[in-house]
Structure formats: structure tokens, C-alpha cells
Write a structure and sequence with these properties.
Mean pLDDT: 79
Oligomer: single chain
Helix content: over 70%
Low-confidence stretches: 116-125, 128-164, 182-188
Number of domains: 3
Radius of gyration: 30 Å
CATH superfamily of the largest domain: Tetratricopeptide repeat domain
CATH class of the largest domain: Mainly Alpha
CATH topology of the largest domain: Serine Threonine Protein Phosphatase 5, Tetratricopeptide repeat
Strand content: under 5%
């Protein structure tokens, strides 16, 4: 079974600068879609899956042929257990790209009965060359997969290669010694030859030992420097977070509540200490309920206009900002209705049940139970 959280963590951002250099005439909608794609990955790393999904939808709306964004959106849907939407996204990719192995593999994980449409002649040919093409296909899939990009081989792999190379060299050396010794075994001067080969072998062994000693010394220095690097990087990251607190305070003073809330979302997993922690906690307490209320109000306007997808995006963003403010229960309830209107009953029931568990004493809890009963009766 695929670990979809790890799958998301392994998705690399797209280097927009490099693409722009090789494609100077790239349209703005393509650039903006890539920026939104990278922003979605950033939101996920800071625990904002709902906002990441919204950013990916925007990216796809700007660039409908952005199939890598489709695949990433599908993995997000699986991670949030929205399997209906995940299946729809992967099927779109498969229909558009007949050889989309990544989307097909993901789809089979959530719908094992799904079979891609492959012509009969292709099947017969594939069966005849199953072993050869099976290996080739897996290698191509690995090359195409965004999960294979930007991976740095670990130091442990180099150690294995060095050890393997040493062992192979020793074995080959032993075979050469045996072959030459056997060839001259019947000669009278074979003792001199054997002594010479033995001396060469001992010299080679000494050289190997010398290289191993140098490698171990360098490896020890590397580990020490790596520890220092991690510590310095940790301190740098902390002070960058502190500088962002100053920026959030500036945005709040300019009444840019949504921008300030987005910055807070990026810092919510930071472990501040002392004065910085007190300042950050105060910003969260002051700003996040206001930002949630702004998104809720915008969502209600769209809801009244029956723009259920637009309203849902706003309600989900309000929920990401805060799940403990005066309209939290109402916000969740309207999320559920939007899912229901969009024919996603699985997510609708999930949201209504969440509301009942969190706010059992509210009137919205009873409304939610009635909605669940209605959906189940219709099914």
C-alpha cells in the first residue's frame, strides 16, 4: 500500500526560473499555474492540505493541460480520503494521456477493478515480451515520475559501492594469481613467480587498507561537519521565522488580514521560544478569527448565488484559518451543504459527522444529522 503522505512529501517543486530560461516566450497563464503548483506543495509542508487543494484547482483552471498538477491533486484527494474526486482526476489524466502510467497506478490503488482501455494487438505484443518490456516500462515510469526528481543519493550508498568494489577487486586479483600460478606450476622457477605475485598482492592489500583508512577519516570529518551544518541551518531557520513575525505584524497594522493569516499558516509548525512565542501566539489569537470570518462572509455571498464550488473553497479556507471562532459550526455546516450540492455525498457525510462530534450541543448538529439521514435514505 502506498504511503500517500510520503508520496506528497517526495513531490519536488518545479524550477520556474530554469523553464523560463529555456522557454522565454512562456505564456503568463503557464507561469502562474506553475507558481500555484509550487505554492500548493509549500502549503502542504506546513499542514494546510485544504488550501493546497484550492491552489491546485486554480493552477488547473489556468492550464487545463497541466497533468502533473492533476496527478498531485489526485494524491491530495486520496490523502484527505476524498476517493470519488481522486478517481475522477486520475481518469481525466488517463483519458488525455493514453500512456499515463502514474495516474493509472494511483487509480488502481483506490479502484482495483479499473482497467485502462488497451487494444488487443498491444496486449498480445506486451504478453510476448513481458519480461523485457516490464523492466523497460518500470524504468520509464520511474524516469517520468516527479517522485524520482531531485533525490540525492545517501552517503550510505557510496559506502556500499566502495565495499563492493574492494571485494570484487580482491576476488579478481585472487583469480589472476591462481591462473598465473597454475600456468607456471610445473616450472622450476615457480617459487620466484609465486613470491613475486604474493608480494604484489600484499602491496595491493596495503594500498586498499590505506584507502579505507583515508575514507574512514574523511567520513568522520563529514559527519562532524554535517552536524554543524544542521545546527547552523536550524538557527537560520528560526531567525527567518522571527523576521516573518515582524512582517505579519506590519501586515496586521495595515489591515491586510488575509495576507497576514497566510503568513501565519506558513509558521504554525514553528517552535518559537520566549518573547517570540508570546508575540506569535498573540498574532494567531488576534488575526486568525478575523481572517476566518472574512472568508466565511465571502463564502456566504457565493453560496447565496449558488456558486457552490467557489463557496466551498472559501469555507474550507476559513476552516483552515481557525476551527474555534463564533461561526465555526455554521461554516462546517455550509461546507457540508456545498459538498452535497456538488454531488460529493462521501465528503458531505464526513463534514456533517465532524460537526456533530465537535459541536454536539448546537442546532447545526441536529441539522447535520438530518442531512446525513436524508443522504442515506436516498442511497
Amino acid at each position: 500500500m502506498i504511503d500517500f503522505k510520503k508520496e506528497l512529501q517526495n513531490y519536488p517543486p518545479i524550477d520556474l526560473n530554469k523553464l523560463s530560461e529555456s522557454n522565454p516566450d512562456m505564456p503568463d497563464n503557464i507561469k502562474n499555474s506553475i507558481m500555484l503548483y509550487n505554492k500548493a506543495l509549500e502549503k502542504f509542508r506546513f499542514g494546510s492540505e485544504d488550501i493546497a487543494i484550492i491552489e491546485l484547482r486554480k493552477a488547473i483552471s489556468l492550464n487545463p493541460d497541466f497533468y502533473e498538477a492533476y496527478n498531485l491533486l489526485g494524491v491530495f484527494y486520496i490523502y484527505t480520503k476524498d476517493y470519488d474526486n481522486a478517481a475522477q482526476v486520475f481518469k481525466k489524466v488517463i483519458e488525455a494521456e493514453k500512456n499515463s502510467i502514474i495516474a493509472l497506478n494511483y487509480l488502481k490503488k483506490i479502484d482495483s477493478s479499473y482497467e485502462a482501455q488497451i487494444n488487443k494487438q498491444g496486449k498480445e505484443k506486451k504478453e510476448k515480451t513481458k519480461d523485457v518490456k516490464g523492466r523497460g516500462k518500470s524504468e520509464k515510469a520511474e524516469e517520468k515520475s516527479p517522485l524520482s526528481l531531485n533525490k540525492v543519493p545517501r552517503k550510505k550508498d557510496y559506502s556500499k559501492k566502495i565495499a563492493a568494489g574492494t571485494l570484487i577487486g580482491f576476488i579478481l586479483g585472487s583469480l589472476v594469481v591462481f591462473a598465473i600460478s597454475f600456468k607456471y606450476y610445473s616450472r622450476e622457477d615457480n617459487a620466484d613467480i609465486i613470491n613475486q605475485l604474493t608480494a604484489e598482492k600484499e602491496a595491493a592489500t596495503a594500498k586498499i587498507n590505506e584507502y579505507e583508512k583515508k575514507y574512514n577519516e574523511l567520513n568522520e570529518k563529514y559527519n562532524g561537519l554535517n552536524v554543524q551544518f544542521e545546527e547552523v541551518n536550524k538557527q537560520l531557520d528560526y531567525y527567518l521565522g522571527v523576521s516573518k513575525i515582524l512582517n505579519i505584524e506590519k501586515l496586521a497594522s495595515e489591515n491586510k488580514i488575509t495576507e497576514a493569516a497566510d503568513e501565519i499558516m506558513l509558521l504554525k509548525n514553528k517552535n518559537f521560544e520566549g518573547i517570540e512565542k508570546d508575540r506569535f501566539d498573540k498574532l494567531v489569537k488576534d488575526i486568525m478569527p478575523k481572517a476566518a470570518q472574512n472568508e466565511y462572509n465571502a463564502g456566504r455571498d457565493l453560496f447565496n448565488k449558488k456558486d457552490y464550488q467557489g463557496a466551498l473553497d472559501r469555507f474550507l479556507k476559513a476552516k483552515a484559518y481557525s476551527d474555534d471562532w463564533k461561526n465555526s459550526a455554521s461554516n462546517l455546516y455550509h461546507c457540508g451543504i456545498c459538498y452535497q450540492e456538488l454531488n460529493n455525498n462521501t465528503m458531505a457525510i464526513k463534514v456533517f459527522q465532524e460537526l456533530i462530534e465537535k459541536y454536539p450541543s448546537t442546532s447545526f448538529a441536529q441539522y447535520s444529522q438530518n442531512r446525513i439521514n436524508q443522504i442515506q435514505n436516498n442511497q
